[in-house]
TrEMBL record:
Segments forming domain FAD-binding PCMH-type: 75-254
Localization in the cell: Peroxisome
InterPro entries to which the protein is assigned, alphabetical: FAD-bd_oxidored_4_C, FAD-bd_PCMH, FAD-bd_PCMH-like_sf, FAD-bd_PCMH_sub1, FAD-bd_PCMH_sub2, FAD-linked_Oxase-like_C, FAD-oxidored/transferase_4, Oxid_FAD_bind_N
Enzyme Commission designation: 1.1.99.39
Protein name: D-2-hydroxyglutarate dehydrogenase, mitochondrial
Coiled-coil positions: none
Catalytic activity: (R)-malate + A = oxaloacetate + AH2
Organism: Polypedilum vanderplanki (Sleeping chironomid midge)
SUPFAM superfamilies named in the record: FAD-binding/transporter-associated domain-like, FAD-linked oxidases, C-terminal domain
Function description: Catalyzes the oxidation of D-2-hydroxyglutarate (D-2-HG) to alpha-ketoglutarate. Also catalyzes the oxidation of other D-2-hydroxyacids, such as D-malate (D-MAL) and D-lactate (D-LAC). Exhibits high activities towards D-2-HG and D-MAL but a very weak activity towards D-LAC.
């Protein structure tokens, strides 16, 4: 389902930014952050970039605005230069030059990231990967696909489908996000329960290091135990260790049969027990398990004008099956729903394999982020929590922020213990900010959860990294950063906490 086209991502009016007064404050004014000791771009630098790329692939002036603001409007940089390479060699030349001049850069994919990592904080040069969008090879026998990193996820999916394969990753931003952005954030999404995370599916990576050196870590095989598995350093490091230019991904065979159940549930304990029943009864065909609370569903149905097939319940769940025999899968899913209702776990539900109906159900889930954004400013938390405590933070936070927030809601990939906790208010508000942070992260840490389940650390969370990682682990990350990017030109102010904190 294509929810976001490139233009909609930057179309502030469509997104709810009705006037320029809603354009976010500059990051440097909203947050306490100090510019690093980087060179300031001059005309000679621009001329050098124009000599590496064609002139029209060096963007300056007004047109750079959209590349400076993140999708949720939480941060805004002031870069005046956006570069659009087409080849790995061009990326290498750019970085070699930037490193020699100590010019800071931000790699940018589809700019759908939700942690402020994809845009400049100050005047860093944006390296947009949008023209590195060639698919090199799709091998239908092995399922291995080689492509450049700027291929839009939805386009990759459409191409591999022609060979009866599917990309082992799906998310609401698929119409805009790049596969390279997905790998750089180790994106999770809606089918992680089925296909696992990208550390498993990505077989090879080509990346350019800060000094311009090209690291060829590509592989055409699932099995390749030759030394250290360096590719993993680039999966989830959010552009802080290198720019990912090419990928080899294992794409599984596309399912022949897809069925969906959408159910209403009266309380969270029943959500858990229904999940358990689904795992037992649907076993190997289960491909997605999502949970949505009443307020979250209310947002997407109202703001996106979608008609829910069910009446109002405190919780909803989506169960998707993907298999090879429709009659078999449909029967299994229907039996599961009947059993769940007999046991009074589920209050009501529908099962469907009609594509229009499945599309509506997925839209109710995938468009929650978009609908929240239409209503104001959203503080977003993406946490892993033990299932036994998964939802309790939502009412706790609701009580804590009281009337200051318009909505506090929770939804997410319950099948992977990943809660999306959202606090909606009219506009960025320091009072709420100080009530929710560091509270949410302390709460998560006390439960041994993760402060970032899938969106990453980006600009918003470096100071909270220690809630999920030991001092020794952070020290080693820093040593790797120093080894691979000694001048710290790659995506500064992101991922790692500043040394003095
Ligand atoms: P960007 O936002 O452009 O960049 C993200 C980070 O990766 C930045 O730090 C950037 O510097 C770095 N980067 C990008 N490309 C490269 C590259 N080639 N080399 C090195 N670094 C690079 N995320 C999930 O995990 N699961 C979801 O279900 C999910 N659903 C979403 C739904 C919506 C509606 C939206 C708006 C976002 C959603 N996201 C989700 C978040 C986001 O889409 C993902 O993080 C996605 O992987 C980002 O890809 P991108 O191409 O937009 O990267
Ligand atoms: C999703 O699963 C995304 O829809 C976005 O990860 C979550 O907006 C959010 O909080
Ligand atoms: Zn998600």
């Amino acid at each position: 389902m294509s929810l976001l086209s490139r233009s909609s991502v930057f179309n502030f009016a469509k997104r709810g930014f009705a006037s320029s007064s809603k354009i976010p404050d500059l990051t440097k004014d909203r947050y306490p952050v100090k510019r690093g000791n980087y060179a300031i771009i001059n005309d000679q630098d621009v001329a050098k970039f124009e000599s590496i790329l064609e002139k029209h692939r060096v963007i300056t002036g007004e047109e750079t605005q959209g590349y400076n603001i993140d999708w949720i409007g939480s941060v805004r940089g002031s870069s005046n230069v956006v570069l659009k390479p087409k080849t790995t060699e061009e990326v290498s030349e750019i970085l070699k030059y930037c490193n020699s001049r100590k010019i800071a850069v931000v790699p940018q994919g589809g700019n759908t990231g939700l942690v402020g990592g994809s845009v400049p904080v100050f005047d860093e040069v944006v390296i947009s990967m949008s023209l590195m969008n060639q698919i090199e090879r799709i091998d239908e026998y092995s399922g291995i696909v080689r492509c450049q990193s700027g291929v839009v996820l939805e386009a990759l999916e459409a191409n591999v489908r022609e060979k009866n394969l599917c990309v082992p990753l799906d998310l609401g931003a698929k119409g805009s996000c790049h596969i390279g952005g997905n790998v750089s954030t180790n994106a999770g999404g809606l089918r992680l329960i089925r296909y696992g995370n990208l550390h498993g599916s990505v077989l090879g990576v080509e990346a350019v290091l800060a000094n311009g050196q090209i690291m060829n870590l590509m592989s055409n095989f699932k099995k390749d135990n030759t030394g250290f598995h360096l590719k993993h350093l680039f999966i989830g490091s959010e552009g802080s260790l290198g720019i990912v230019t090419k990928l080899a991904i294992h794409c599984p065979t596309a399912p022949q049969a897809v069925n969906l159940a959408f159910v209403g549930v009266e309380n969270y304990q029943n959500v858990l027990d229904t999940f358990l029943l689904a795992k037992k009864e649907l076993g190997e065909i289960l491909s997605s398990v999502e949970m949505i609370d009443e307020l979250s569903l209310g947002c997407s149905t109202t703001m996106c004008n979608i008609q829910s097939p069910l009446q109002t319940y405190p919780f909803y769940m989506i169960f998707e099956t993907s298999g090879s025999n429709n009659a078999h899968d449909e029967e299994k899913l229907t039996n599961f729903l009947n059993n769940a209702m007999e046991k009074s776990l589920v209050a009501d539900g529908v099962v469907t394999n009609e594509s229009a109906k499945m599309k509506t159900i997925w839209e109710m889930r995938e468009r929650i982020a978009e609908s929240l954004l239409k209503m104001g400013y959203c503080f977003k938390y993406d946490i892993s929590l033990p299932l036994s405590h998964f939802y309790e933070i939502v009412p706790v936070l609701r009580e804590r922020v009281g009337d200051l927030a318009k909505i506090v809601c929770g939804y997410g990939h319950v099948g992977d213990s990943n809660l999306h906790l959202n606090v909606l208010c009219d506009s960025f508000n320091k009072e709420i900010y100080s009530l929710v942070e560091p509270f949410v992260f302390e709460y998560t840490s006390k439960l041994n959860g993760s402060v970032s389940a899938e969106h990453g650390i980006g600009f918003h969370k470096p100071k909270y990294l220690h809630f999920s990682k030991s001092k020794e682990a952070i020290d080693m990350m820093r040593q790797l950063k120093t080894l691979m990017d000694p001048n710290e030109i790659l995506n500064p102010y992101k991922v790692l906490p500043p040394l003095n904190k």
